Amino acid sequence: MEYSLIRKVLSRLGRLFLSEKRYQAIREKILGHFRVDSETKYKRIRATFFKKTRKREEYHNVYRSRLNHLVHVDQPMVLISQAARSGGTMLHRLFDSHPECHTYPVELAMGIKPDIYDYPWPEINLNDTPETWLKSLVQIHVWRWLKNDFRYWPQDKETYPFIFCPLLCEKIFNTCVVDLRHSAINQRNIFNSYMTAFFNAWVDNQNLYSPSLKKFTVAFAPQMVLEKENIRKFFGVYPDGKFISVIRDPFSWYASASRYRPKIYGEIESSIQNYWKKSTNNAIELWREHKERVILIRFDSLVQNTEGVMEGLAGKLGIEFTNSMLDPTFNNHSIKANSSFNEKKNLKKQTINRYKEILSQDEIRRIDLLSTELYDKALKVSEAF
């Protein structure tokens, strides 16, 4: 209707300012440009196919394709957390390629915080605007993914393909939130909207269109368990979620942590008390509160018996055990171990006893006095896969 009206107006204007002969000649020339044979038509397409003006079309094509074929990420979350340097990264990466899981690609460090190593569970005020919700959830590291080749750790030499579009993430999030207006606006739906936006804006996500039905979203947040309230808030949003904590023996933990960040973990008493013991104590207490939703596993078993532990976890979670759970990957690409000892491949079994070569007898004695009783207690309640 509007197009027809525009044609009539232009036709009258043309006749008003041009002679009939001139008007018809121009009209025929314009129509002739579009009324061509197939060969001419495709020659014109080929001639313009690589014009720089197509940048906008390419960008809009990504938007349109994702928005028209959204994969909704609303599954329960499996959250992995314990003191840093306890094997959480390895466990997280073993879930990466599982066809029944969306795996959050990096550590779950949501929101903008003064300390980038602080991992609180994000607070969402339902009375805030969608813009504020998104800022509370968006990953702080996004800026780094745009400026440089993606490295899982900033100091790594290895780079990985990772294409993420923040503006597309915002567009999808806002679209999902608008849809919420017709249903319920609650914490879980806001998190679902963000996860849907994040995983779809990660445009080269190799696992997004997996034919298997997704059952979980897997995420890793080291240190989050240092405050039990964080995990309780997590269960408030994901009452159907699971929490996994890796228990590492205090000797090998300290040997690794003290070399990773000596300024933070270098002093035995404070690092054992404030990190290892706090994490382990909280994990045990959470297990007692939520036995059906909390799983404690042993670092030694994860390294020495990876297949047995992952098969056991798959059974606990109700997902199929696959060979992809035996090799750490990032977006289906093999990834080296996150080790304090410059391992070039996956974590090796000798990492368990390496502390004997590193720690002095006095250090071992001091750690033993501080932690052995608690470690024995943790082993009793952890899964014996």
Key phrases:
385 residues; elongated
Q: How would you describe what is shown here?
A:
With 385 residues, the protein is α/β, with parallel strands linked by helices. The chain contains 17 helices and seven strands. The strands form two sheets. The chain has a five-stranded parallel beta sheet with strand order 2-3-1-4-5, with helices on both faces. Strands 6-7 form a two-stranded antiparallel sheet. Helix 8 (166-180) packs antiparallel against helix 9, helix 11 (250-260) packs across helix 13 and helix 13 (268-289) packs parallel to helix 17. It is elongated, with a radius of gyration of 28 Å.
Element layout with pairings:
Layout: H1 2-17, H2 20-34, H3 38-48, H4 54-68, E1 77-80, H5 88-94, E2 101-103, H6 130-137, H7 142-147, H8 166-180, H9 187-201, E3 216-220, H10 228-237, E4 242-247, H11 250-260, H12 262-265, H13 268-289, E5 294-298, H14 299-304, H15 306-317, E6 329-330, E7 333-334, H16 355-358, H17 361-381
Parallel strand pairs: 1-3, 1-4, 2-3, 4-5
Antiparallel strand pairs: 6-7
Q: How much beta, percentage-wise?
A: 5-15%
Low-pLDDT sequence parts: none
Q: Summarize the amount of helix as a percent range.
A: 40-55%
Number of strand elements: 7
Total of helices: 17
Structural class: alpha/beta
Q: Note the overall shape.
A: elongated
Provide the residue-averaged pLDDT: 89
Strand order of the largest sheet: 2-3-1-4-5
Order of helices and strands: HHHHEHEHHHHEHEHHHEHHEEHH
Radius of gyration: 28 Å
Main beta sheet strand tally, sense and closure? 5 strands, parallel
Separation of termini?
A: 70 Å
